[in-house]
Specification:
The structure holds two protein chains of two kinds.
Chain A lengths: L10 E11 L5 E12 L4 E5 L6 H8 L7 E6 L2 E2 L5 H8 L2 E4 L13 H11 L6 H14 L16 H13 L5 E5 L7 H18 L2 E6 L2 H7 L2 E6 L2 E7 H6 L4 H9 L50 E4 L2 E3 L4 H6 L1
Parallel strand pairs in A: 3-8, 3-9, 6-7, 7-8
Antiparallel strand pairs in A: 1-2, 1-4, 4-5, 9-10, 10-12, 11-12
Helix pairs in contact in A: 3-4, 3-5, 4-5, 5-6
Chain B lengths: L3 E13 L4 E13 L3 E5 L6 H9 L7 E10 L2 E2 L5 H8 L4 E4 L3 H4 L6 H12 L5 H14 L16 H13 L5 E5 L7 H18 L2 E6 L2 H7 L2 E6 L2 E7 H5 L6 H9 L47 E4 L2 E4 L1 H8 L8
Helix pairs in contact in B: 4-5, 4-6
Chain lengths: 328, 334
């Protein structure tokens, strides 16, 4: 665990909600009442299945999506109600790396143009020589050979493209970066290279990450704290090492158990296969949204809101019957 | 169980365009017995899918070419069959394939029931409409979908359910060989666990042989009987489960693959990736294809193609092991 020198978090979400209208007075609850704070220089991992609202949460952190209600506090200022113009100074200190390096780069721009465009848009430098120097500096930092500077994205493989995206996100020297599944489109060997690069850059530049992924094994290495999401709600939140040692929510346990392990001695271990699929996020019933798939579910799971409670120091959980789930 | 079902010998496949020649598969040998599951592991571009497409004879017509080698399936040479025989007797009937992305593998304007019955209609003799409908219901039940959903369209199914439909189509004619090309890569972990569990059960029940193409050694560990690791169009290591997952001897690339997997049990913060990238398949180096990324690279590796070192069922193509044999350092030969 890294020590945070400041007591105030760099980004904070308070009672954040994002509902989408789907017609007929129905609402899709994409993100429901999430509270999170990320301290400078640390990483918050957000884990969940597709459709659980993790990308919506990531985009909302950067105010790319306007929240339905709740606050986004960036360095002490609530940015949720700011106009686009007033947002501009904050935009430079927050960036995003997208999932698919194949579609997040403009195919008609060279690598140089892609990395330089944030500098030009924000008018950081007066003369082009400085821009050029910064682009070369960034390329070196993320491990891209200088000869690639005039290449187009189609000439690069996935790993290199993702490095370009990282360079582009870092070129303005931001403080906070949302990484939305940055490695899920890459091969395992390349995935490890990119994860190491992200960790090195964090140490070097003191970056703060929000790392979104569906793969718990990826998030383990990079996160300080992990937030497990299910259908828009946070079901468990704990420091990374604690969550892996002592997962409490039935959903977290199922997620962990579903990861295929590259070891044949584990072949006959009992996998807690979660039956069924995500239920609809449109006007969900009150109560635990995982209950229909949970093997420990009982009458009390539905009908009332399940609060997130601190069951152990820093370990938050939204499951009132967790002690029974352990006994089984 | 020891009946030979599929035998690939010295298969070489290239993709040729006016600009370059891509050496996709460079002389691979695979033997698969009835009822066995082979895991074909490797990175993007290693030639896994090309191998599968060659077995099915589905290589792109203009660019893909089989240079040499044979694929023998149930005693018949696949490359000598007529197109008609291939289409009516082998593909879809004896060998079926599951593609990676269930979202694009299904026809969006046909109900899933119709898509399954299409396969049965073309491959079963003299079946009337009622017979086909009964088969569709049976096969849907087999993959865990309620037959009442057969009149729904693909968009009404979730990703995991769509993959089940794709598997149902593949199993509709009860093939003896099922080629699954990254069947769970596009799915969430929880759904992946469901689909893998189901595929394992179906294999045990129907006795289908499988080739499981994947880049995830975890998936291989769960479902396969043998493993072949591909790199730049070659099988660089192969063996049964113990050879790959228990034995301490590995090709440096296989070791790298294991090292790159984020380990849930370890406390280490950093991962140990394989440095560098796979060589451009249109410009393969002389000698071993892995030389540029290998930390054990010797002079001989840059000159000659690696020889294959055999220890029982375990085969490794690497000079490291050749040398050990010469030095009499033979503790690996138990």
């Amino acid at each position: 665990m890294k020590k945070n020198d400041k007591a105030t978090p760099i980004v904070e979400l308070k009672n954040f909600k994002k509902y989408y209208d789907v017609g007929g007075h129905r609402k899709l609850h994409a993100v429901d009442n999430i509270n999170a704070s990320i301290f400078a220089g640390t990483t918050l991992g957000v884990v969940g299945e597709s459709g659980c609202g993790k990308t919506t949460l990531g985009r909302a952190m950067l105010k790319l999506i306007k929240p339905t209600s709740g606050e986004i506090i960036f360095e002490g200022v609530d940015i949720s109600e700011l106009t686009p113009k007033k947002m501009q100074p904050y935009r430079q200190s927050m960036q995003i790396i997208f999932q698919d390096p194949y579609s997040s780069l403009n195919p008609r721009k060279t690598i140089y143009e892609s990395i330089a465009s944030p500098l030009i848009v924000n008018k950081i430098f007066k003369n082009s020589k400085d821009v050029e120097n910064r682009v070369h500096e960034m390329m070196k930092m993320v491990g891209l050979a200088e000869r690639l500077v005039n290449s187009y994205p189609h000439e690069l493989d996935g790993g290199r493209r993702q490095r370009v995206c990282i360079a582009r996100a870092l070129v303005l020297k931001p403080k906070f970066i949302v990484c939305d599944e940055p490695v899920s489109a890459l091969d395992v060997s390349i995935q490890a290279q990119i994860l190491n690069l992200l960790m090195d850059l964090q140490d070097e530049m003191g970056l703060t990450y929000m790392f979104i992924t569906h793969d718990l094994s990826v998030v383990k290495h990079i996160s300080d704290e992990i937030l497990v999401m299910y259908l828009g709600q946070c079901v468990e939140k704990a420091p990374s090492s604690e969550l892996f040692k002592n997962p409490l929510h039935p959903y977290t346990k199922a997620l962990l158990s579903a990861i295929p392990i590259a070891d044949i001695s584990s072949r006959n271990r009992k996998i807690q296969v979660v039956r069924g699929e995500l239920t609809s996020p449109i006007d969900p019933e009150k109560g635990c949204r995982f209950a229909p798939r949970c093997k420990y579910s009982q009458a009390g799971c539905l009908g009332k809101e399940i609060p997130l409670i601190e069951v152990e120091p820093n370990h938050y959980l939204a499951c009132p019957y967790w002690e029974q789930a352990i006994d089984n | 169980m020891k009946d030979e079902l599929l035998k690939i010998e010295k298969l070489e496949v290239i993709y040729k365009t006016s600009e370059e020649t891509v050496q996709a598969v460079n002389g691979i040998d695979i033997v698969l017995n009835k009822g066995e599951t082979l895991g074909l592991v490797g990175e993007t571009g290693a030639g896994k899918t090309t191998t599968a497409l060659s077995i099915m004879r589905l290589l792109p017509e203009r660019t893909g070419k089989v240079l040499s080698g044979n694929v023998t399936f149930e005693g018949e040479n696949i490359f000598e069959l007529s197109d008609e025989d291939m289409r009516m007797k082998i593909r879809g009937e004896r060998i079926a394939m599951i593609f990676q992305d269930p979202m694009t593998a299904l026809n969006p304007v046909m109900t899933v029931g119709d898509q399954i019955s299409e396969a049965i209609y073309y491959h079963s003799e003299k079946t009337n409409a009622a017979g086909i409908a009964a088969r569709v219901d049976k096969v849907l039940e087999l993959v865990g979908i309620s037959p009442s959903r057969k009149n729904e369209y693909p968009h009404q199914f979730s990703g995991g359910m769509k993959q089940r439909v794709v598997i149902a189509i593949a199993l509709a004619c009860e093939p003896v060989l099922l080629i699954a090309d990254e069947p769970t890569t596009a799915l969430d972990v929880t759904i992946q666990a469901q689909v893998l569990e189901m595929m394992g059960e179906l294999r045990d029940r129907l006795g289908t042989a499988m080739i499981m193409i994947t880049h995830d050694l975890g998936v291989v560990a769960q479902i396969c009987d043998k493993v072949a690791v591909m790199y730049a169009g070659e099988i660089i290591e192969s063996g049964n489960m113990e050879d790959i997952f228990v034995s301490k001897e590995h090709h440096p690339y296989t070791e790298g693959l294991f090292g790159a997997i984020p380990d849930l049990a370890s406390e280490a913060k950093r991962l140990s990736p394989i440095t560098g990238l796979m060589p451009d398949p249109s410009r393969l180096p002389q000698g071993c294809n892995f030389q540029e990324r290998c930390s054990h690279c010797m002079e001989i590796c840059t000159k000659k193609n690696p020889e294959t070192y055999v220890n029982g069922t375990h085969k490794i193509s690497c000079f490291l092991f050749k040398n050990k044999e010469d030095r009499g350092d033979g503790d690996e030969k138990k």
